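Subject: Interface between my chains keeps coming out wrong

I've been trying for a while to get a sensible model of this assembly. When I model each chain on its own everything looks fine, but I need the whole thing in one frame so I can look at the contacts. Pasting all components below, labels as-is. Any help appreciated, I'm running out of ideas.
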Amino acid sequence: MDLYQELILEHYKRPHGAGLREPYGAQVHHVNPTCGDEVTLRVQVQGTGSDAVLRDVSYDALGCAISRASTSVLYDLVVGRPLHEALSTHTAMHAMLTSRGADAGDEDVLGDGIALAGVAKYPARVKCALLGWMALTDALTQAGAGPTGHLTDAKESAG
Amino acid sequence: MLAAPAVPVALGFSDAELAAVRADVPILSRTVRAGRRLVYLDSGATSHKPRQVLDAERAFYEQHNAAVHRGAHQLAEEATDAYEAARAAVAGFVGASADEVVFTRNATEGINLVAYAMSNAATAGPQAQRFVLGPGDEVVVTEMEHHANLVPWQELCRRTGATLRWLSVDDDGQLALDDLAQVVNPRTKVLAFTHVSNVLGTVNPVAELVSRAREVGALVVLDACQSVPHLPVDLAALGVDFAAFSGHKMLGPLGVGVLWGRRELLGAMPPFLTGGSMIEVVHMASSTYAAPPQRFEAGVPVAAQAVGLHAAVDYLSALGMDRVHAHESALTKALLEGLAELAWVRVIGPTSTSERGAAVSFVVEDDGVAVHAHDVGQVLDDLGVAVRVGHHCAWPLHRRFGVAATTRASFGPYNGLDDVQALLDGLHRVREVML
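Reply #2:
Try treating it as a single job with all components included. I did that and got this:
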C-alpha cells in the first residue's frame, strides 16, 4: 500500500533523534484527540533574526507509525538548519500533507519526507503526520522564534 | 425479509437468511479501496440501513411531509399520525409505553436532557425537588462509560456542586462491585451506567446495580446504546428510571435517538430545551409546559427519522431480537476463538464468550512492541475491512488498561463468519507489514 513505504517503516521502527534532551528553550505537549497520540517536543534555538539556527529538536512520541515516522523525518530535516529554512520546510510539508495528493513534495526540500506523500490521500491520517510539525511551530513560537503570519491548524476535537 | 427460522435459534441465521439480510442493505453491495468487498465491522459506531428504512423515510417526505403537531391540514394530520405511530412502535420494541418515549437527536442528547433537567430542577417548583442536586450529593458513573455518559455528569456536578464518583473496572473488564455499597451510598442521587460496554463488550449486572440504587433512593440512568440494537431489552423489567439509545446504531436513520423515562419521573421533571411544541400556555412573562413526552420535544420534531426508526424496529422485530443476539453472539465467539490463536493479539475485555455484547476490542503487540491501532485499522482498511480505531469515546477506560488506543470490531445482523475470517486474515497482514 502507498502509506507504509519501507522508508516510513524504517523511521517508525528506528526513529531519529528520539528522546528528550537538554538544553532547550521551550517544550510543548500536543495531543491528537481522535486517537490519543501524544508528543512532547523541545526546541533549542541559537542566535536571533536571520542568524537564528535550530540547534536541536528532541521529543518523546507516543503514537502510530505515521506520526512517529513524520516526527523522525522532522528531526532529520530541521535540526542544524537556519530557522528560516526549518520554517519553510514546515510550510512545504504542511502543503504536501494537506494537498489531498495534488502535491507530491519536492525531495530536495523534504528528503525522506516525500515518502509521506501518500498520507495526503487518507484525510483521517493527515493529523497524525502533522502532529510533530504542529508541535514544532508551537514550540518555536513559545521560544520566541515562531513563524509570523504562519499558518496554524485549528485544533480538532473528536470522540 | 426473513422466512420462518430454518435453523435452531442458538445458531443464529442460516446462510440463506444472512444473504437475504445483506441483500436488504444497499451499501453492502458497494466496494471499497480498489474493488474490495466491504467488510463492515463498525456497527458499534453506526449501523447500515436496510432498504425498508430508507424507503420509509423517503415515503414520509414524498407523501406526508409536514410539521408534526402543528396545523390542521391533511398532511399535518398524516405526519403526526406517522410520528406517533413510530413512538408507539419504538416503545413496544423496548417494553415501554408510548408516553414514556421521548424522541431526541441521539442518545447523547437524551442523557444531556436528564442532566440539564436536573440542574433546572432547583427553580422548577416543589414537584421537581426530587431532581435537585447540590453540594454533598453524589453522582455515580463507571470507569467504562462512553464519554456521552460521563461528561454530562461531570458538567452536572460542576454546575450544582455535587461530587462525581465512579465504580472501577477490573482486569477482566468487569465492574468491580466489592465497594458498590460504599460508592453507591445514601448521598448518591444518580447512578448512571452502560448496559453493554461499547469497548469491552461487558454486559453489566443491571439487577444488582438497580437493587443497590433502590436501597439508597438514587435515580438510575442506563446507557442502552449497545444493548437495544443487539439483544432483546425490556426497559421496564430492568427496573431502571431512564434509558437512552440511538436510532442509527439499530439500523435506523441518523438524527434520531430515544430517551425513555418512567412516567411519574418524566411528569415531575422540568424541561431541558424550551420553545415551540413543548408548551401548554404561553404569556409574555411566563409559560406552562405540556405533559410528557411533548414537554421534552421542543421545536419541529425529527418525524422522518422517527418514521425510519419505526421501519428499523419492525425490521429487527421480524428478524427476532433473540435471533439477532444469537447470530451476533456466534460471530463474537468465533472472533474471540480466532483471536485467542494469535499470540500477538491481546483482547481488552472479558475473554469469556458467554454474556457478551457484539464488540471486541484488542491490541496487536509482539515482544513488547505494540502496533498502534491507527496502523492496524489502516492496513485492514486497505483490505476492505472497516473497524474502529482509537479510544472509542472511552478515554478513561483505555487509560485504565494502559493503552492509548485499541482496534474494535463490532457486529450487526448483516455480518457473517466470512467477515470474521476477513478480519483474522487481515490481522496476519498487519503483522507482516508492521511487526
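Reply #3:
Confirming on my end. Chain A touches chain B through 18 residues (CB under 8 Å).
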